[in-house]
UniProtKB/TrEMBL annotation:
SMART domains given in the database record: PLDc (SM00155)
GO CC annotations on file: early endosome membrane; endomembrane system; late endosome membrane; lysosomal lumen
Protein name: 5'-3' exonuclease PLD3
GO terms assigned for molecular function: exonuclease activity
Organism: Danio rerio (Zebrafish)
UniProt similarity note: Belongs to the phospholipase D family.
Length: 482
């Protein structure tokens, strides 16, 4: 039978069961209202939980962007860059050479007021490692003496690769006895590589970076190249972040999966530091290797090299001790083609002029020559312009007795756009496992004085045309040239 009671009444009847119609109806209505209010509050709390981190993130990004702009606009230091060289005893060039690394290091020591940080591979500034009385070790001995004196009055920190059992420790112990703070970094345990970098930071405003080790031979018996940048706190502060990373690694057994913000940088290949260098506008940044040691914002050294090659418009000139498209020190043979492929690509696709000046000495691996001949053979097409020359440092009978000497140890590249001054040899291990660093300078604006790019190009062309360089061909091998 169809009910004549309206729906609204049926609801009222259901609600009236229990304590009476009016009281129960009011009770349930209050319950519904409270439930709705509670639901709304929970939704608002959830939204707040989601929105606050987003707001903080947005605020952080905004502050980082503001900081980026602020730092670029306020980097007004009167930065000055100087190329420095070590020319082995007995070598003579027809054209000029730059200030010696020995003199540059003495100047930096004399200029130190409060602090000196040195990142280094090893220390052998005296004859103790060779057990000889080689007179040309005198310059290294002078540097060690001056550093000892400085350590007693300024804060000297040294980050050095943890020496193997047979490596000499005399220099490090000497400096420690005078007050230097030394930390040994076990890169073999951390990355399976070594701490191969070579740079100084003085008073957080002057820097040196280049190929020279803390070795007396690097001052008188090995050909080296580096750069000193004076009165440039912006750049020194950024290089200091790389040093602080090495300093931290002494206290850990693992490389951080994500480096804290204090190690990060705003300057890289995409957003270089804008500053005045020798009175000329310049774009500058520092790269580092391996990638695991690069905090946020830092360009890995390999990516820096590939970017410099890719952006060349006319030429790429490379001067390095070793050039091997392999993992040089891995137990199993591994081909590593990153740089080699990029050189071939720009030569073929864009007709870039490529020159490689590679060193040869007693420690040169014979396998390097087939790879170099392969590159040089591309010149036979008459369409690709790739040339390779081998650079040798001559030795007399006495000089041949000096171990690990008489070699061109340079590690730089120059293009029509950029000067790249690094600390690594060019084989895969140095970019995958080993700690290195590099200074990258784009300073191509016209000026009264020559740019560092033009100066570095002149160094390369001087060495390329010298009597110490020899064209490689299909018959060239280590025994014939070195």
């Amino acid at each position: 039978m169809k009910s004549d009671i309206p729906y609204e009444k049926m609801v009222d009847v259901e609600l009236s069961r229990g304590e009476g119609h009016h009281g129960s109806q009011k009770y349930y209505r209050c319950l519904i209202v409270l439930t709705c209010i509670t639901t709304v509050l929970l939704i608002l709390l959830s939204l707040q939980t989601l929105l606050v981190p987003m707001a903080k993130s947005s605020s952080t990004k905004s502050s980082v962007q503001q900081e980026r702009v602020l730092i670029r606009e306020t980097c007004t230091d009167p930065c000055r860059i100087v190329l420095v060289e070590s020319i082995p005893e007995g070598m003579v060039f027809n054209s000029s050479v730059h200030q010696s690394i020995y003199d540059a290091w003495l100047n930096l020591i004399s200029a130190t007021q409060s602090s000196l940080d040195i990142a280094s591979f090893y220390w052998t500034l005296t004859n103790s490692d060779t057990h000889t009385q080689e007179p040309t070790a005198n310059q290294g001995q002078q540097i060690l003496k001056k550093l000892g004196q400085l350590s007693s009055k300024a804060y000297v920190r040294i980050a050095v690769d943890k020496p193997a059992d047979k490596k000499p420790m005399e220099d490090i112990n000497f400096l420690s006895s005078y007050g230097a703070d030394v930390r040994m970094v076990n890169m073999r345990e951390l990355t399976t590589g070594v701490l191969h970098t070579k740079f100084w930071i003085v008073d957080k405003k002057h820097i040196y970076i280049g190929s020279a080790n803390m070795d007396w031979r690097s001052l008188t018996q090995v050909k080296e190249l580096g750069a000193v940048v004076y009165d440039c706190s912006c750049l020194a502060e950024d290089l200091g972040k790389i040093f602080e990373a090495y300093w931290y690694l002494n206290q850990t057994k693992t490389v951080p999966a994500h480096w804290p913000n204090k190690y990060s940088t705003l300057y890289n290949k995409d957003t270089p530091m804008q500053l005045s260098l020798n009175g000329t506008s310049a774009s500058v940044y520092l790269s580092s290797s391996p990638p695991s040691l690069c905090a946020e914002g830092r360009t890995p050294d390999l990516q820096s090299i590939l970017d410099v090659i890719a952006n060349a418009q006319q030429f790429v000139y490379i001067a390095v001790m070793n050039y091997l498209p392999t993992m040089e020190f891995s137990r199993s043979k591994r081909y590593w083609m990153d740089i080699d492929t990029e050189l071939r690509r720009v030569a073929y696709e864009r007709r870039i002029r490529v020159r490689l000046l590679i060193s040869c000495w007693n420690s040169t691996k014979p396998i390097m020559f087939p790879f170099l001949r392969s590159l040089a053979s591309l010149q036979d097409t008459n369409q690709l312009d790739i040339q390779v020359r081998i650079f040798t440092v001559p030795s007399d009978a006495q000089q041949k007795k000096i171990p690990f000497a008489r070699v061109n140890h340079n590690k730089y590249m120059v293009t029509d756009q950029v000067a790249y001054i690094g600390t690594s040899n060019w084989s895969g291990d140095y970019f995958v496992n080993t700690a290195g660093s590099a200074l990258v300078v784009n300073q191509t604006s016209a000026s009264a004085s020559s740019t560092v790019q033009e100066q570095l190009q002149a160094v390369f062309e001087r060495d390329w045309e010298s009597a110490y360089s020899t064209d490689i061909n299909h018959r060239s091998n280590r025994k014939d040239i070195c």
